[in-house]
Amino acid sequence: MSSRETGEIIEDFLSEGPWAVIGASTNREKYGNKVLRAYTQSGREAWPVNPRADEIEGLKCYADLASLPAVPRGISIITPPKITEQVVAEAARLGVKFVWMQPGAESDEAMAIAAKNGLEAIGDGSCLLVVVGYREG
After folding, report:
1. Could you report the per-residue pLDDT of 11-27, keeping only the tens digit for each?
2. Range of the domain at 33
3. Considering its fold, how many domains does the chain have in total?
4. What is the CA radius of gyration of the chain?
C-alpha cells in the first residue's frame, strides 16, 4: 500500500502520460466515454481500450492493454469490479505505474492486487471527471 495521500497520487497520476481508458465506450452517455473525453479535453494523450470497438471519439481503439502502442504510465478503469481485478493484474505484469479505478469499478481485491504489485492505486471513490473539471461538450 502506498503511504502517500490520495491527493498526492492523483497529482502524480495526472502529471505525465500517456494514459489508457479501460472500458472506454462508444456511447457518449456512459462514463467510459466521458472519462476518455476528459483526457482529450484537457490536452492529454489517452488510448481507448475496448475489445468490441475499432474507434472511439475519433481515436483508434485497442482490444486490451497488451495491444497498446506503448505501456501507459497510468490507466483509468471503468469496468465491473471482477474485470477490474484482471485489468490491475495485467497492468502490473506490463509495468503500468498508476491505476485509477473510477467509482463503481473498485474492489478490495483490486486494491490488494495493486498493493501487492507495487502499483500506485486510486480506488476511494475519487472521480477523474471531477478532478479535471470535465464539461459535457
Report:
1. 999 999 999 999 999 99
2. 6-131
3. 1
4. 13
Tell me the H-state helices in 3-68: 6-15, 31-41
Q: List the grid coordinates of 71.
A: 505501456
Q: Is the pTM of this model over 0.85?
A: yes
| Residue 53 counted as domain residue | yes
Residue 18: cis peptide before it, omega within 30 degrees of 0: yes
CA distance 26 to 59: 11
The answer to whether position 26 is within a domain reads: yes
For residue 51, what is the domain's CATH number? 3.40.50.720
Helical spans, DSSP H, in 16-106: 31-41, 81-94
pLDDT in tens, 37-60: 999 999 999 999 999 999 999 999
User: In the 8-state DSSP scheme, what is residue 62?
Assistant: B
